[in-house]
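Students often ask why inverse folding is considered easier than folding. One informal answer: many sequences map to the same fold, so there is more than one right answer. In these notes we will look at a single instance of the problem. The structure comes first.
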């Protein structure tokens, strides 16, 4: 019997069963049911821009169909509100520290176990199209065509196993088209996993031509906190760089054409590149859609709050137009399934997005914070005759649960080291609220001192409370929110004596969660380095007085001390060595005589290349380098001499010396410390002479 006849006879039997019973929708066991998995995933689509979640700003009729005919997860969260990290978590079922992808810029270790590989191993055909953003090539997929990095909206390039190819059209439509084409030509005898991953509605929100007219004559309601003053919380929220008022680029983000395209600077130069990338017909239609509004804006030149309001409207309309494209993609998928009832019968369709987003809430765009708008991830699932319809799940679910769920349904044992739990019991329960489930979710964001300047933070969210710890020494602050009393998270009660007991309980719960998931990142081992970036952990080295192992999670990570400036000739010695199995990167002594966040001199060793190097400020490229004769293991004593009068630096190790000029403007050294990249490096015996 072919799969098709089996499926239709099952449908018939099911229809008969229904005719003879008064029961509501019957359910079949999900565990091991080996459904086709059609996973539509977008980038930065917040729940509050989905009408099924109660959006005040738009309608998403196709995504809503999944809620109507399936389940909507009301409390689904990410574990690290950023693109690459959320995707790595979904693939591995593990929090960031365990899958190694903690911040954008890391490279996903594609050799680790993913649900896609495991499904492939039990006979699923697997494909992924669209945004990927994990740097290494996809593994575990029979077919892949992914955007390089963030990818482009118009006429994007796609990377495939056989090379790079540019396609004409809008990224959302192209991604949908590839997914449907793959469905058409797949092997109908085997189950499939299809991941259709949209770039939209990611910044800089370039809608498809057919969505440009939407919202033109409407005003999008403003969020209550558009003009948030950040009082009532720690100082962190005020220090970010993600406001609509000050951190959006007029040309790049808000699509106002510059008077002189040749004079564009910084991020705004991308405006021109994007225009040039469009075909002439696309460019004309695109620019015509905004022309009247742009003219009015330039004429009226609104200032202050009026300008923020204008920017909010422009931003939101483009964001929501991009969302509309994604909703249309979901519609196209549903339509395809409707036209192929035999496939539909065996297909669970899932909609989600990598994290939430600020839609002007707190005056912001972007994500990253553990606050509600960016912590929430949409999650909807439908599978006719298998899942209940119109059900809302309130359980605290998380992106770590996706992989275990897919595996469970495919009948693959969930690897014990995955952090998540299969959602199958929630999917099967008559009353999901009666299922024993977790009482708290864990969160850890790392990408500090990067775009948007959101501090590293970890925390726990329960049904009612949220505890956040900003652990970097420059902040060292806790926030606690009572979500029932203060759903907008405007008043931290971390220091309110009435909440002291609750805070103590939550702190305890957070310790337990960190232990449960084995997360020791964010622990600086008692060291207080006032300036740092990209450092995940600092551990004291056993048996050493001042030795530290530094775990860096990106290129150019550092830990710096500041103190009494040192002038004249300063000599710094330290030992350094890569920890076992992590010899690919480097160890540096860092000094600064300017702003240490921008102006750093790096002197030290590239472990893999066995080179002694000096890299001058503003660049990670070596200004001077010499080969080292060294076994790659023994601690190297590195001696750096900074001559602030002669403006010269010399570095010696293992009998080799290199020298380079130092910035002339530096009168004294104002900050010094360690640097390492994407690796664990041990430093010891830092001495000044
Ligand atoms: C880019 C964006 C940022 C965004 C990050 C991460 N700038 O750097 O606004 O926060 O991506 O987004 S842009 O100028 O390139 O648009 S993520 O979703 O990929 O994590
Ligand atoms: Ca994202």
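Output (designed amino acids):
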């Amino acid at each position: 019997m072919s799969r098709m006849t089996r499926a239709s006879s099952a449908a018939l039997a099911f229809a008969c069963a229904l005719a003879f019973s008064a029961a509501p929708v019957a359910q079949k066991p999900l565990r091991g049911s080996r459904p086709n998995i059609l996973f539509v995933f977008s980038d930065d689509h917040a729940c509050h821009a989905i009408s099924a979640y109660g959006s005040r700003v738009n309608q998403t009729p196709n995504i809503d169909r999944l809620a109507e005919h399936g389940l909507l997860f009301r409390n689904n969260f990410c574990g690290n509100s950023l693109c690459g990290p959320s995707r790595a978590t979904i693939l591995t079922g593990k929090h960031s520290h365990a899958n190694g992808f903690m911040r954008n810029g890391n490279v996903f270790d594609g050799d680790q176990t993913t649900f896609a590989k495991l499904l492939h191993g039990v006979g699923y055909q697997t494909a992924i199209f669209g945004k990927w953003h994990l740097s290494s090539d996809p593994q575990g997929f029979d077919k892949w065509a992914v955007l390089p990095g963030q990818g482009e909206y118009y006429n994007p390039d796609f990377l495939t196993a056989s090379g790079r190819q540019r396609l004409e059209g809008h990224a959302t439509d192209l991604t949908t088209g590839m997914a449907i084409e793959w469905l058409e030509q797949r092997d109908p005898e085997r189950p499939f996993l299809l991941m259709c991953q949209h770039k939209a509605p990611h910044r800089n929100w370039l809608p498809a031509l057919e969505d440009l007219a939407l919202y033109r004559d409407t005003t999008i309601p403003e969020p209550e906190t558009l003009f948030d003053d950040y009082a009532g919380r720690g100082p962190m929220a005020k220090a970010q760089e993600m406001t609509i008022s000050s951190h959006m680029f007029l040309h790049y983000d808000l699509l106002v054409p510059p008077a002189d395209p040749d004079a564009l600077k910084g991020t705004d130069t991308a405006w021109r590149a994007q225009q040039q990338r469009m075909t002439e017909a696309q460019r004309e239609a695109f620019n015509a859609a905004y022309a009247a509004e742009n003219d009015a804006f330039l004429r009226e030149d609104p200032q202050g709050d009026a300008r923020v309001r204008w920017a909010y409207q422009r931003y939101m309309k483009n964001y929501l137009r991009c969302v509309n494209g994604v909703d249309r993609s979901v519609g196209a998928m549903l339509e395809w399934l409707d036209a192929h009832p035999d496939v539909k019968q065996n297909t669970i369709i899932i909609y989600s997005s990598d994290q939430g987003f600020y839609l002007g809430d707190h005056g912001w765009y972007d994500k990253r914070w553990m606050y509600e708008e960016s912590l929430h991830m949409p999650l909807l699932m439908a599978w006719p005759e298998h899942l209940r319809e119109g059900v809302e799940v309130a359980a605290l679910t998380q992106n770590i649960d996706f992989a275990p769920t897919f595996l469970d349904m495919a009948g693959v044992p969930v690897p014990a080291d995955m952090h998540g739990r299969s959602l199958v019991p929630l999917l099967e329960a008559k009353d999901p609220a009666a299922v024993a489930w977790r009482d708290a979710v864990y969160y850890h964001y790392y990408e500090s001192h990067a775009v948007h300047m959101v501090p590293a933070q970890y925390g726990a969210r329960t049904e009612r409370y949220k505890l956040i710890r900003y652990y970097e020494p420059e902040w060292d602050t806790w926030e606690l929110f009572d979500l029932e009393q203060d759903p907008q998270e405007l008043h931290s009660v971390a220091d309110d004596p009435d909440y002291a007991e609750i805070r103590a309980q939550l702190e305890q719960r957070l310790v337990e969660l960190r232990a449960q998931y084995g997360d020791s990142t964010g622990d600086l081992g008692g060291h207080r380095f006032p300036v740092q970036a990209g450092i995940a952990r600092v551990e004291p080295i056993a048996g050493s007085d001042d030795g530290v192992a530094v775990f860096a999670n990106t290129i150019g990570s550092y830990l710096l001390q500041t103190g009494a400036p040192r002038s004249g000739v300063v000599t710094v010695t330290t030992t350094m060595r890569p920890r076992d199995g992590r010899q690919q990167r480097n160890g540096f002594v860092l000094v600064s005589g300017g702003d240490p966040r921008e102006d750093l001199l790096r002197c030290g060793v590239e472990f893999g290349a066995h080179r002694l190097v000096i890299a001058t400020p503003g660049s990670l490229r070596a200004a001077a380098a010499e080969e080292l004769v060294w076994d790659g293991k023994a601690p190297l004593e590195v001696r750096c001499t900074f001559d602030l009068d002669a403006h010269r630096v010399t570095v010696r190790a293992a009998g080799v010396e290199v020298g380079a000029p130092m910035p002339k403007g530096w009168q004294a050294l104002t900050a010094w410390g360690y640097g390492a990249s994407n690796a664990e490096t041990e430093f010891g015996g830092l001495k000044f002479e």
